[in-house]
Predict the structure of Phage shock protein A.
Amino acid sequence: MALFKRLRDLTMANLNALIDKAEDPVKMLDQYLRDMEEDIGDAEAAVAKQIAVEKKLQQQYQETQELVEKREAQALQALEAGNEDLARRALVDKKAMAEKAADFKAQHEGAKTVADNLRGKLSEMKDQLAEMKNKRDTLKARAEAAKAQKQINQTLSGIGSNNAAAGFSRMEDKVLQLEAEAEASEEVSASKSLDREFAELKKKDTSDIDAELQALKAKLNK
């Protein structure tokens, strides 16, 4: 079990290292902003729904409260007309409407509190998004500057230019080899030329002797 746990931890560590290496700061910042904008869109939809609930409850409360006032006026009108029973029934309905109005009022106040809270959080999210966008521009500029500085430092330190240096070294070796071959060829050519001169000299010496021998033979014959 301990071995499996160590293998799992090692695998997760390697995966996290690969993810960290693959993450591009600028692209990740843009992705975070897109995620934030989506969250704000969801929050706006939730706020809109809560506002609709708040307004509906407010409307129900106002309508019920108006009905309470209407039943009280009707009860007074019935009493003036001498109809106590009708006045009583109007007051009973007024009481029921008053209880319902109180319930709607409580619900409306709760819904308004929730809506105000959501509005505040939505405003904070938008402020945070604006701040993140400003910071994104700054971080993006810093990232580009850091990349440029890294590339320059690598070039100055020779990192990344090994191929060019190795290529120049190979070409220098080839030039030296060509020069050596040319020098050797020149020495061989000079040696052959010297041998030819000695051969011509030997040939010339032999011809002189042959001529002198023929002259002596002619003189003897005489």
User: Anything to note?
Assistant: The chain has a mean pLDDT of 80.
